[in-house]
Design brief:
This protein has about 270 residues and is an alpha/beta fold. The protein has 8 helices and 10 strands. The protein is globular and about 60 Å long. The relative contact order is 0.17. The C terminus is likely disordered.
Length: about 270
C-alpha cells in the first residue's frame, strides 16, 4: 500500500517517487483534488482508478469508512494500491484513519509526501512564507467549525508575527477576519485569498486585512466572494502577504470555472484507459 501526495494542482509538482508508484499501480484510489492529467497520463494504463472525492459543502462526499474498506479489500487481494491524496498526505487529511485500518489488518504501507497547498499556493502567488523582518514562522490552521479555536487563541493569532495559513476556511472568511480585527491584529498585516492554487485557473485576491470589508477582495465582478470562492481556496495572513504585489509572477486567470471536477462527475474509468 502506498499513501502518496499528488501536490496542490499542477501535475508537474508530483514527486518522482509518487510517479514511479503510479506507473506500477494495480489500483489507484484518488481524492477529488488531483489533476486529471496525473490520472490520465501518469498512471499505469491497466490500473483501476477509484474516485473517492469529498465535497462537504455539496453533500457529495465519499464516507471515510467506504475508503477504508476499499483500501483493505484491494490490498488483501495482493494488488499494489496507491492511495492518492491532493497536496501532502499528512496535512489536513484523514491519513490517521487510513493508517489505523491498515495497521489493524497488518497491511504494509509506505508514505510518500507531496507538496502541500500552503507551499504551492505561496510560491505560485509570489509570497515568501517566511522572510527576514516579516515573519520567522508559519502556522497551518483551519476554521471550518467555530469550536476549533477559542477566544484566547484568536487573541494570540491576532498578535503573533507568524504567517497564518488557513485551509478549508473560505466560507467563514468574513467571520475569520472579524475575529482577528476584534482582537487587535496590526494594520500592516495583509490577507490573500488564493483560489485553485498552482492550476491554470489560479486567482489571487489580496489587500490589507483592515481594508478587507471595503476592498475588492470581498467580492468580484463575476460574483466570487465570501462563501462563494472557487474551491479549493487557501487563505494567507501576515506581513509577508504585502510582498505579493511586488513578487507575483503568475497572472490571474480571472475565471470562476472549476479546475477540478465535481464529485458527481468523477467516474471509475478503466475501459477508456485500456
Amino acid at each position: 500500500m502506498i499513501l502518496a501526495g499528488a501536490g496542490p494542482g499542477d501535475p508537474e509538482l508530483l514527486t518522482i517517487k509518487a510517479l514511479r508508484w503510479l506507473r506500477q499501480a494495480d489500483v489507484v484510489i484518488t481524492d477529488r483534488l488531483v489533476s486529471d492529467i496525473i490520472l490520465d497520463e501518469y498512471v499505469n494504463k491497466e490500473a483501476l482508478i477509484l474516485h473517492v472525492g469529498k465535497e462537504c459543502r455539496k453533500g457529495a462526499s465519499t464516507p471515510q469508512s467506504t475508503i477504508n474498506e476499499l483500501l483493505v479489500e484491494y490490498a488483501l487481494q495482493g494488488k499494489l494500491v496507491v492511495r492518492l491524496k491532493g497536496g501532502d498526505v499528512s496535512i489536513f487529511s484523514n491519513v490517521l484513519d487510513e493508517l489505523q485500518v491498515l495497521t489493524e489488518h497488518h497491511i504494509p504501507y509506505e508514505i510518500v509526501p507531496g507538496i502541500t497547498a500552503a507551499l504551492g499556493a505561496a510560491a505560485y502567488a509570489g509570497i515568501p512564507l517566511t522572510a527576514r523582518g516579516y515573519s520567522t514562522a508559519i502556522r497551518f490552521l483551519t476554521w471550518y467549525k467555530q469550536e476549533i479555536l477559542d477566544e484566547s487563541y484568536w487573541k494570540e493569532l491576532a498578535q503573533t508575527s507568524d504567517t497564518l495559513v488557513f485551509y478549508m476556511s473560505a466560507a467563514p472568511l468574513d467571520e475569520l477576519v472579524g475575529k482577528l480585527l476584534q482582537h487587535g491584529i496590526e494594520k500592516d498585516k495583509w490577507l490573500a485569498v488564493i483560489e485553485q492554487a498552482t492550476t491554470p485557473l489560479q486567482n489571487v485576491l489580496s489587500c490589507p486585512i483592515h481594508e478587507y470589508r471595503r476592498s475588492g477582495t470581498q467580492a468580484t465582478d463575476d460574483g466570487r466572494g465570501p462563501g462563494n470562492y472557487v474551491s479549493p481556496t487557501l487563505i494567507i495572513i501576515g506581513k509577508v502577504v504585502a510582498l505579493q504585489e511586488t513578487f507575483r509572477w503568475l497572472p490571474d486567470s480571472h475565471s470562476a470555472t472549476s479546475y477540478f471536477k465535481p464529485v458527481e462527475n468523477q467516474k471509475i474509468k478503466t475501459e477508456e484507459r485500456a
